């Protein structure tokens, strides 16, 4: 225990966890290191999964370049700082909903659709609030175009229902790489 305290004191840690998080924030850990790791991991995972290039070294180089170039300006850091706290709140709301419904619901078949709809609503609210905080959205634009967005959303849902209702085994066409990826995610 004494060794750990001496180690922490040597590197300037003298307080509670809040001070440690503040020190990490001052060093750029949350603004640069974590976004870099997240972007690198996502790009590397997508490239590895799609197998566009043969070999993980090419995937690693491309992932490294994309992650470093994404952090060239402060844009990604600000975006992540806005969206992830809201995502945490949205996930907490969904968790509470799951717990409450789990206590009082016996038949959970139809509840899957309710969870999906509520999750989609929370997702949209998170995106709109994040966009507003970043200055991307203007409330007068949303007010003027909400009907158009509703129609487009309805069309997307209708297309998704039609595609989801079709029987993929009856078609003889070659499967696209995107469909292979989507099937692999399920």
Question: What order do the helices and strands come in, and which of them pair?
Answer:
Elements: H1 2-10, H2 17-26, H3 29-50, H4 56-70, H5 75-104, H6 111-134, H7 139-165, H8 177-185
Short account of what is shown:
The protein is mainly α and 186 residues long.
3D architecture notes:
The protein is mostly helical and 186 residues long. It has a domain at 1-72. 78% of the residues lie in helices and 0% in strands. It has 8 helices and no strands. The protein has helices at residues 2-10, 17-26, 29-50, 56-70, 75-104, 111-134, 139-165, 177-185. It starts with a helix and ends with a helix. The mean pLDDT is 76.
SS field, number of helical segments: 8
For the secondary structure, the number of strands is: 0
Q: Biggest sheet, open or closed, and with what strands and sense?
A: none
Report Rg.
Answer: 23 Å
Distance between the termini: 46 Å
Low-confidence segments, ≥5 residues, pLDDT <50?
none
Q: Any idea what the shape is?
A: globular
What portion of the residues fall into strands of 2 or more residues?
under 5%
Mean pLDDT: 76
> How much helicity do the residues have?
over 70%
The helix-and-strand class reads: mainly alpha
Q: What is the element string, with H for helices and E for strands?
A: HHHHHHHH
């Amino acid at each position: 225990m004494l060794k750990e305290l001496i180690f922490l004191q040597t590197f300037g840690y003298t307080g509670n966890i809040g001070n440690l998080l503040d020190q990490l924030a001052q060093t750029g850990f949350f603004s640069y290191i974590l976004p870099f790791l997240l972007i690198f991991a996502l790009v590397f995972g997508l490239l590895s999964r799609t197998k566009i290039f043969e070999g993980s070294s090419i995937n690693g180089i491309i992932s490294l370049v994309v992650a470093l170039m994404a952090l060239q300006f402060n844009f990604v850091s600000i975006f992540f700082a806005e969206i992830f706290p809201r995502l945490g709140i949205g996930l907490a709301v969904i968790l509470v909903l799951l717990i409450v419904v789990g206590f009082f619901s016996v038949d959970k078949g139809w509840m899957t659709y309710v969870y999906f709809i509520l999750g989609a609503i929370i997702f949209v609210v998170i995106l709109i609030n994040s966009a507003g905080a970043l200055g991307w959205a203007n409330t007068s634009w949303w007010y003027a175009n909400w009907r158009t967005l509703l129609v487009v959303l309805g069309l997307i849902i209708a297309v998704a229902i039609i595609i989801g209702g079709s029987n993929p085994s009856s078609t003889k066409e070659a499967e696209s790489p995107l469909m292979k990826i989507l099937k692999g995610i399920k």
